[in-house]
């Protein structure tokens, strides 16, 4: 290809990134948009208090349990093909959920959403990883991706509040249909196929072991909120999940074509990146949870007002991820961005301890959101970039799936653990004040503050580990002969 055609090739890649980003936004939105609508769904479909958790759990179990398989399917059958199939499947599952006439139908739809999401997330991220290889371009592309990942949850809260207040809870599911169709059309036109050149051979024992292990751990975390971490069910699930995952690591070191080759996670840089993504998930979802409940329960905000109150946090993420990270990453080692990002996010969580029933928005939620958003924007683009950096192209899908799995496990366990701490602290505060009902809102704020200290401690610990473990120097531009920037990616058959 002539050099004068190179700008067109570059424009095609950046245009493709827009549609891949839409798919990622849809996945992240679905993690929070339904949460806001839960009370309305419960009333409309006559769901009991004990069963309502399954509306969230059905999605998370399918998503978390099938992620690594989804990544391998993308590697073997084609990342573009998997991306398009997953988009249409996700849209169909969303349509089924929006039209649900009963609880059982909604659960099936949510499980299908999770399954197709487990195909969509790894295929989208692996497409990004193989499309952008030069350090400067990767920094920009992953900056956009990280901004979407960090801000999408807050946008989901805003969208969920608006759709629930002004339309109907069903639109929290229907909204996925136009997004998926637009992303599918753009992906069909702009993306080229890439896949592992060898014959597709799936590691069935690995699939069963890691799927069972991840489902057990995620489900245990979900049950811990209601049953307690010391219940027999939760302990049994955690132990069983741990044993299955341990067996998975043994199997993967011995089979010819492992589902997750040990070389993918054994690298110090990638291991630290997975850790950073997982711990960022702990803090990010804890921030969403605590701030949402603080604003609605303690301050009495409506769902739509709560969503609007998150907008400064979204802007902080966009400024940090889209502006600062993309400019600095090609010039500095990755840990010089991730470590400060974790510390800044920890500072945001610590600021939660200053909030009480009388704290104003500007001195409370605004500061928390700005600090956490700015820190998350430094963590996610860099960590996701280096979680797929230097991976053999044949392993791109499963490496991308590992990033999603780290975030899924981190957020599931983190939310369950921190919510348990918050609930216990609230109960202790009320008990120490004679169970005075007038102090109910203050007790809730105290609980969130206590749990936020733990969240900050987790982030600080992660910052120390990443600082020690991630010893990668700053990126270097490779010679043009190694960089196919001026050539159209060709389909691999």
Automatic annotation (TrEMBL):
Membrane-crossing segments per the record: 14-34, 54-71, 83-103, 115-132, 144-167, 173-191, 203-221, 233-251, 272-295, 307-325, 337-355, 361-388, 409-431, 451-470
Keywords for this protein: Cell membrane, Membrane, Transmembrane, Transmembrane helix, Transport
Main subcellular location: membrane
Limits of the Major facilitator superfamily (MFS) profile domain: 16-474
The organism's place on the tree of life at top rank: Bacteria
Localization annotation: Cell membrane
Signal peptide: none
Pfam families referenced in this protein's UniProt entry, alphabetically: MFS_1 (PF07690)
Protein name stated in the entry: MFS transporter
